[in-house]
Specification:
The protein has about 475 residues and is of the alpha/beta class. It contains 16 helices and 20 strands. The longest helix is centred in the first third of the chain and has 22 residues. The structure holds nicotinamide-adenine-dinucleotide (NAD). Nicotinamide-adenine-dinucleotide binds next to α8 and α9.
Length: about 475
């Protein structure tokens, strides 16, 4: 399958059927049929086979979910903090117990390599519930002297790149603060949220506290249409264009809003960096999860004096990546999430070549069925090139150079986004100076793509506003003082 010098035998993860063939909407603590009467199949992007069929929620279904969340709010918001903590701990433990099954399902539904869903997504999901369980009875310390109160019903809309992790990032803080929720997973990856619904019921979460409605953009629009009319807070993670539409829909309704949007993050390598370590950071920065990462290090800035050496090292490392079956434990790069996303990436690959950048990609066979893209590097990229400006959301790296730290800062900040950045240098003073001057919500020093439930994550500018994680993330889910 790959040109790797190491011949790896296939190491498929065993797949026991754990799914039902068909799922309804999770409303008021149980699965119900959608009043819309519509259903759609969630497709495994590595095989193009359906994983299961799910309901396509219409406006009436969403209104029913919001009503269930409203009904549950008075009691849940007054539930003793220690009781809420007990439930969140229980949910975390149950996810941990079922984590292998959830990891397999995440890879089947979304295309990501099993070693990532198993070793990155699921541990972070569990950590998020554990972390927020700890906050339930400490909110008065987190907001000292401010008497934090829950907001009410939260409408939460999430993307497909980290389906269960995004659900955890939304639900855990909302529940810890005493809110109730209506969560809408992305249309290409609804399955793990539905299994999570089973877990919530199994753990004894009171009915209506979390409601899960599957569907596409229309179901999302039905949630934002109820902002101020049953929905007290909208939390969205997804693309910047949709984030702007949601900001318009929510404006003036009185509902609170947080937006976690796209990125075009810089990864900056100085000549004094530990180069092989930096290569690993660049690999993780752009090829982790097929590059379907909001904070992907998709713009690489290399100090000019080491450009050729660094790119040679990076190309050598790229050629060792194993692309293929997401359920093979050796796979490094899995399937592209959907046909639509593959088409988008292909348009960017064409634009990169048409605008004059040099394309390097690995020469590997790709499976006949499914949606695949080879890890790709564009060198000789200019800041005006499309591949340097727009979020590709695929395994495509745009390489540029710089000569001085000042130029690195200017070029890195020359973007409409501001989600993350990486700096590679052995000089601590330079690292700190760079981190102060980069316009990014997160700056990683000599590492990349590190997450922790206790560390706030979020963006500036067109990457959105609001933070998720840590005590900063709680502020999105509480009212303080006299207002909302
Ligand atoms: P998307 O914006 O197309 O869809 C996100 C979600 O919004 C889906 O559930 C979709 O059904 C729903 N939706 C679409 N149109 C809607 C509308 N008009 N009103 C309400 N809901 C609507 O994004 P995507 O393609 O699923 O995800 C990729 C994007 O998400 C990338 O831009 C990525 O950078 C971003 N992302 C950001 C973060 C972060 O924390 N900043 C994390 C993950 C992904």
């Amino acid at each position: 399958m790959t040109t790797s010098p190491f011949a790896y035998a296939p190491a498929p993860e065993s797949v026991r059927p754990v799914l039902k063939p068909s799922y309804g909407l999770f409303i008021g603590g149980k699965f119900v049929e959608a009043k819309s009467g519509k259903r759609f199949a969630s497709i495994n992007p590595a095989t193009e086979q359906p994983v299961a069929e799910v309901a396509d929620a219409g406006a009436e279904d969403v209104a029913r979910a919001v009503a269930a969340a409203r009904k549950a709010f008075p009691k849940w918001s007054k539930t003793k903090p220690a009781e809420r903590a007990k439930l969140l701990f229980r949910i975390a433990r149950r996810i941990q117990e079922r984590s292998r099954e959830l990891a397999v399902l995440e890879s089947m539904d979304g295309g990501k390599p099993i070693k990532e869903s198993r070793d990155d997504d699921l541990p972070l999901v569990v950590q998020h519930f554990f972390h927020h369980a700890g906050w339930c009875d400490k909110l008065t310390y987190a907001f000292a002297g401010a008497s934090p109160r829950p907001i009410g019903v939260c409408g939460q809309i999430i993307p497909w790149n980290f389906p269960l992790m995004m659900a955890a990032w939304k639900l855990a803080p909302a529940l810890a603060c005493g809110n109730t929720c209506v969560l809408k997973p992305a249309e290409t990856t609804p399955m793990t949220a539905l299994v999570l619904a089973e877990i919530l019921a199994e753990c004894g979460l009171p009915e209506g506290v979390v409601n899960i409605v599957t569907g596409g953009p229309d179901a999302g629009r039905a949630i934002t249409a109820l902002a101020g009319k049953g929905v007290d807070k909208v939390a969205f993670t997804g693309s910047t264009d949709v984030g702007k539409a949601i900001a318009k829909a929510v404006a003036g309704t009185g509902a609170k809003l947080t937006l976690e949007l796209g990125g075009k993050s810089p990864n900056i390598v100085f000549a004094d960096a530990a180069l092989d370590q930096a290569v690993e950071g660049v690999v993780s920065g752009i090829w982790f999860n097929q590059g379907h990462v909001c904070c992907a290090g998709s713009r690489l800035f290399v100090e000019e004096s080491i450009h050729d050496d660094f790119i040679a090292r990076l190309e050598r490392r790229m050629k060792q990546l194993r692309v293929g079956d997401p359920l093979d434990k050796n796979t490094d790069v899995g399937a592209i999430n959907s046909k639509a996303q593959l088409d988008t990436i292909r348009r960017y690959l064409k634009a990169g070549a048409d605008e004059g950048a040099t394309k390097l990609e690995i020469a590997c066979d790709l499976p006949k069925k499914g949606f695949w893209c080879r890890p790709t590097i564009f060198t000789g990229v200019q800041p005006s090139h499309t591949v340097a400006r727009e979020e590709i959301f695929g395994p495509v790296l745009a390489v540029m150079t710089f000569r001085t730290p000042e130029e690195a800062v200017q070029r890195a900040n020359n973007t409409t986004y501001g989600l993350s950045a990486g700096v590679w240098t052995e000089k601590a003073a330079r690292a700190l100076e760079m981190s102060n001057r980069l316009t990014a919500g997160v700056v990683w020093l000599n590492t990349f793509n590190r997450f922790d439930a206790s560390a706030p994550f979020g963006g500036y500018r067109e990457s959105g506003f609001g933070r998720e994680g840590g005590c900063q993330g709680l502020s999105a889910y509480v009212s303080i003082g006299g207002g909302r």
